[in-house]
Write a structure and sequence with these properties.
- The chain is mainly β.
- The protein has 2 domains: about 80 residues, no CATH class; about 80 residues, Beta Barrel (OB fold (Dihydrolipoamide Acetyltransferase, E2P)).
- The chain is built from 3 helices and 15 strands.
- The strands form 3 sheets. Strands 2-1-7-6-5-4-3 form a 7-stranded antiparallel β-sheet. It has a 4-stranded antiparallel β-sheet with strand order 8-15-13-10, with no helix packed on it. Strands 12-11-9-14 form a 4-stranded antiparallel β-sheet, with no helix packed on it.
- It starts with a helix and ends with a strand.
Length: about 170
């Protein structure tokens, strides 16, 4: 559990998943007992609850928020999520899976305010396909990859449910 607190201390994150099997939300007040000594750019010596630990950051990908950490010789793969990433996940968005899909589905229930594309139109990754109003906020639904609009199931002015098919790309 120590590595959760250490990662949070350096990166100000709110949730950590270790080895894809254990997830812990962090309470920053738990870090009061942590003492750190900087050894090098990737190594630290720390003391937590009267125990000493040697920590090394073996690999890091800041953009993906993934880290391989060695604590007292044991390797841990840690994925971090800040408060915004946690909220987006709860709304049904899946960052890594969207690039592989040809079907655009509603990430949440809402009202279709505008459809910005037509069937047969070429789109590029990131182009706004439609605007979905949910919880009084306008959400731009973008193309997850380059492609051609094959089918538009959504209709302007209609309400949709989470998971409802909106647009098919090819």
């Amino acid at each position: 559990m120590l590595f959760f607190y250490l990662i949070i201390l350096f990166l100000t994150m709110f949730k950590a998943t270790v080895n894809k099997s254990f997830t812990k939300k962090i309470d920053l007040s738990d870090l009061k007992e942590l003492e750190l000594n900087h050894i090098s750019n990737s190594k630290l010596q720390l003391r937590y609850q009267s125990k000493n630990y040697e920590l090394e950051i073996v690999e890091s990908n800041f953009n993906a928020k993934t880290y391989q950490i060695k604590i007292n010789g044991n390797n841990y793969n840690v994925n971090l999520a800040d408060e915004l990433a946690i909220k987006i996940g709860k709304m049904g968005f899946e960052k890594n899976n969207s690039k592989k899909l040809n079907s655009i589905i509603a990430p949440m229930p809402g009202l279709i305010l505008n459809i910005n594309v037509k069937e047969g139109q070429k789109v590029k990754n990131g182009d706004v396909l439609l605007v979905l109003e949910a919880m009084k906020m306008e959400n731009s639904i973008t193309a997850p990859k380059d492609g051609i609009i094959k089918l538009i199931s959504a209709k302007k002015g209609t309400t949709v449910e989470k998971g409802q098919h909106l647009i098919e790309l090819s």
